[in-house]
């Protein structure tokens, strides 16, 4: 008896809530219904290259030696001297 309730009521309700939340997310983020623009730093390829270069050089830390930012995405953890 409870399985009938799950397939008829609960599952469609959960799927409908996902659809509604995706629609609002898409409208607010991609369609910009509340206004706003994409920052120029995200549109500029040179900015991205320069940022990645600085991350590869190492980021100064206060408590220890500088290390490469986000080493997992770089696939090798190396210490910057």
TrEMBL record:
<protein>
    <submittedName>
        <fullName>Uncharacterized protein</fullName>
    </submittedName>
</protein>
<dbReference type="Pfam" id="PF06592">
    <property type="entry name" value="DUF1138"/>
</dbReference>
<dbReference type="InterPro" id="IPR009515">
    <property type="entry name" value="DUF1138"/>
</dbReference>
């Amino acid at each position: 008896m409870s399985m009938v309730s799950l397939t008829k009521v609960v599952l469609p309700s959960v799927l409908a809530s996902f659809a509604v939340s995706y629609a609002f997310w898409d409208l607010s983020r991609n369609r910009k219904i509340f206004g706003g623009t994409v920052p120029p730093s995200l549109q500029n390829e040179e900015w991205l290259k320069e940022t990645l270069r600085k991350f590869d050089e190492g980021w100064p830390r206060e408590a220890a030696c500088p290390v490469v930012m986000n080493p997992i995405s770089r696939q090798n953890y190396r210490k910057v001297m």
